[in-house]
Amino acid sequence: MENTDLINEEWRHVLSLLPGDLEASCEEKLALVRRRRISSAEDLLRLCLGYSLCDMSLRQLAAWSTVAGLGELSDVAILKRLRHASEWLGHLVLQMLQKRGVTRQVPGCQVRILDATTIQRPGSKGTDLRLHASFDLAGQRLSALELTDASGGETFKRHRVQAGEIVLGDRGYAHGAGIASILRQQGHVVVRGHWQNLPLKSARGKKVDTIALMSLVGDGEVGDWPVVVEDGRDRFPMRMIVIKKSAPAAECEREEIEKEARRKGRTPDPRSLRAAGYVMVVTDLAETELSATQALELYRFRWQIEMEFKRLKGLHHLDHVRAKDENLARTYVFGKLLGAVIVEEMTEGALAFFPWGFPLSAEAA
Q: What are the extents of the domains in the chain?
């Protein structure tokens, strides 16, 4: 199915999948202040999806708006309406993802997964925008979605957690200040460690040689050592948990390290190449609350978010945004996300279709 079908032939179906309070949420988010020509939330949403999901230019969108009966609008008039729609679109994405959920295989404890992905503007070779996501694993829903500029780095500090909640993060979140912010909120962390970015200390305050400890772990073994993370004058007891990678997995990461070093005209750090053979996870939870093996298994859930971002970038080109204007770029990104969720809803509905209206057996369901 072509993306343009969603805003034309399939539009009635698309509307049936969306939240029922489109008009109310559109008004609440101030997405449609002036209702001249584009007088409804439904029409505004069609314009937004035409721009983002269908990748129409403003001129093409103006022509399509006339043909589709939405109204005769100039490029400038459409631009103004799109620029005001980003917050509303973000709200709709959050509602849709909360309804869909992330996974049905979850641990019994309350767990939140944090991750972020980068987005580039036209002609850019760096990071222009960063999309931050927070998933409530136990509740099977997205709990927060935030789009920032490049200065909005990955850090636990931007997130609020409940007492007792476990937060999962990759190496980008492995910083003392961020970990401390979660622990001060009486939450817990399970975070992928990094030998360089996260200095670990012993109980006596001596710097821990993480690579030397890693080297003690053999095939099929799991290492578990008490360490300390510092933030200012505060010291937090933690555990450093290590497992040795398989040879192919280790070689794959070493190739990535060497490739990145060549790109920057540098020689790979031998310590990074050694550390590439292991996975290190750091947590404040005691062994009686979370064994080393359980901590590693729990961290694996984070890959669900990683795979979701990769899939969106690959199928819907989320990693690049056409607009240079900040508000227009936000509309484009959230429109892409909303369109991706709609496509998945329609695809899954088609796969689950029974001509006779019900499954033949419990196993088929």
A: 3-91+321-351, 164-290
